[in-house]
Amino acid sequence: MQQAQPDSIPEAASGLERRGVTMRAVAIGLGVALFIQGWGIFSSRVIRSSGVTAGFLSPALFIAILLVLFVLNPFLRRVVRSAGLSLAEILTIFAMGLMGGAPIAALYAFITIPYYLATPENQWGALLHPHLPSWVAPLDVDGAVTLLFNGLPGGQGAIPWGAWVVPMFWWVLLFCVLAFAAASLSVILRKQWVEHERLRYPVLEPIVEMASGSETGGLWPQFARGKLFWFGAGFAFVFIFWNALPWISPAFPEMPVRGRVYAFFGRDMPPMFSYIDPFTFAFSYFANLDVLFSVWFFFAVFVLEFGIFNRLGYSIGGRGDRYGSYDAASSWQGLGAFCVFVLFGLWMARRHLKDVVMKAWRSDASVDDSREMLSYRTAVVGILVGFIFTVVWLNRAGMDLQMAIPLVAMLFVLYIGVARIIAESGLLYVQGPMTAQSFSVYLLGAKAVSPSSLTTLLFSYPIHANSTSQMSHVAKVGEQVRDRGRRLFWAVGLSFLATTLVVIIGTLYLGYTRGAENFGHGFICGGVHNFPDTVSKIKEPFDVDWNRIMFFGIGAAVMVVLTFLRYRFPWWPIHPVGFAIMGTDLVRNFALTLFLAWSCKTVILRVGGNSLFRQAQPFFLGLLVGHVLGITGAFLVDMFMFPGAGHSIHPWIE
User: Fold this and answer.
1) DSSP code per residue over 316-359
2) What is the pLDDT of residue 213?
3) How far apart are CA 623 and CA 603, in angstroms?
4) Is residue 446 classed as helix, strand or coil in its secondary structure?
């Protein structure tokens, strides 16, 4: 099973000789970040078309980078031959677009729904409203919340901006502190991951490959000059755009490529999604082969394990919230494995972490942190401040300390794990097996905490690891540019804050002028599923569920064995990472795609080795380009012909 892996991200000397965080790179990067968020709001809220900002690296970001490579850079070279963007500058632009902003869109649903959808029957007013501080969620005074969903009468009148100033200030402050803590964790772990363990960050490889090719001059970047590239681009474009044509003419035959959810392996077996995603398939070509194998292999193990449970009628309950794994058993089993995965990684980094502490505490001159986005002292302080501030914020909002502390601790664990899995595997869609919120409430039991804690727990769901997992890749980019990242940190921070404000203002403006009810089901459904569950916990609290703790222990024990086998025996072919995420929704959605990508890459490496791997890269780069162009084409069809009644071409997020 062991296959030779292609080289990691190339160091393009000509690009690295020039400073990356230039004024023009920051200006372009800020424009790219605002373009991505603006397109996302316009597509989902106004046109109600495709979700162009989904995933770790979104199609909108990829389109923006293509515009820089195919339009802006050739234009600059035409004006002044030496004025083209360097590789380091393009990576700076990419990092600013990659980080994006805070998850404000999800936040709106959680802090407005308890007022807008409250009825005497669901008892939200009686059970939740008394525990909602006005600085956390705006009160529905003078219809401030109701009008957001229904719109101002006749689209006229003053938008009640004042009702949102205080809650948005505190939420944005919390998101900024958490983003700073994520940056601090990424800075501390970068050297261990990049230089000691030599993780490859496969997601960056296509970007660096395309950006490096753009430095050779000419109208088209080097990677786009061959027939193989255009064949891949054409294939992916037709694959995506073909099914937009029946929107225009129902007589046009629809290509059966959307897939469906069903049990591949028989009755009572957990279902999987048959859709093949070209974007994931193409990026997986650059992923680690053993990790790809691990993901689909353990997915097969998951199907067998929980298929047997289903046949026997064995269950320990639901998964706790809609963001966990298949059910409670798979969620807690996966979380146990996930925690061992993270803790073992920290144990492997113990010498490096000791150096970090010595540098932060005693300014040890033998430890060099000049190449990092932040000094180690600042990073250590950032982690401590992030942890303490988040705990205090939640406590002041109404959460007991005994719940807030394990919640924030698990939030940090999930961030490290998700960031590491993406850095090691190159998978675009990764989630933890369970949320920190579900973990904390079932760890303590609902009887052990107050109704105020449960209500605050409900509103903390927008705080999740995935919203800042890109920061580890930003730290990697900071190591690649000549400036060594100090300026990059401030550039990315500017992008984060600017895009957050754009989403806040844009969503409020569109809500009051058009009505958030017209945003589509995703705006409300993003949070409404958790409200009845929280009310149930308040009305019928429960003790600690030891069955869940038992599965946590089982998952941890199995992961210990798998990790031991992986690092003790060089011939052991199975990477343990797939076990930690095997039951998550995203793995079940993309298991077939990942299996096909693994099969394709295996054949290529066995037949032609790294040489054939390199020769085939233009085809897969073409798949990426064709896919995002197909999404853009479908969006344009919706914008001009079906505004406000668009179509989603991503069946896995419908």
Assistant:
1) ----SSTTSBSSHHHHHHHHHHHHHHHHHHHHHTHHHHHHHHHH
2) 62
3) 18
4) helix
The answer, yes or no, to whether residue 608 has pLDDT greater than 70, is yes
What mean pLDDT is reported for the chain? Answer: 85
Residues with Cβ within 8 Å of 297's Cβ and at least 6 positions away in sequence, in order, are: 574, 578
Among residues 144, 120, 126, the alpha carbon closest in space to that of 134 is found at: 144
The strand pair at 272-273 and 261-262 is best described as antiparallel
Q: Which residues of 86-102 are buried (b: 16+ CB within 10 A; e: fewer)?
A: bbbbbbbbbbbbbbbbb
Q: What is the pLDDT of residues 269-279, one digit of tens each?
A: 888 777 888 88
Contacts of 153 (CB under 8 A, 6+ apart): none
Q: How far is CA 277 from the centre of its chain?
A: 17
Task: List pLDDT tens digits, range 304-332.
Answer: 998 899 888 888 887 777 787 888 889 99
pLDDT greater than 60 at residue 266: yes
Contact, 325 vs 462, CB < 8 A?
no
Q: Tell me the residue type at 643.
A: P
Q: Name, in order, each residue with C-beta under 8 angstroms of 476's C-beta and a sequence gap of 6 or more.
A: 190, 194, 201, 204, 423
What pTM does this model have? 0.90
Is the model's pLDDT at 654 over the cut of 60?
A: no
In the predicted structure, residue 483 carries a pLDDT above the cut 60: no
pLDDT reported for residue 351: 93
Residues 317, 320: Cα–Cα separation, whole Å: 8
Structure tokens at 176: 């900024």
Residues linked to residue 273 through DSSP beta bridges, in sequence order: 261
Contacts of 190-196 with C-beta under 8 Å, sequence gap 24+, read 190/372, 190/472, 190/475, 190/476, 190/478, 190/479, 191/352, 191/372, 192/348, 192/349, 192/352, 192/353, 193/420, 193/423, 193/472, 194/476, 194/479, 196/349, 196/352
CB atoms within 10 A of CB 141: 11
496, 99 contact by CB (below 8 A):
yes
From CA 181, how far away is CA 385, in angstroms rounded? 8
DSSP 8-class letter at 192: I
Cα–Cα distance measured from residue 407 to residue 559, given in angstroms and rounded to the nearest whole number = 22
Residue 135 token pair? 């600085």
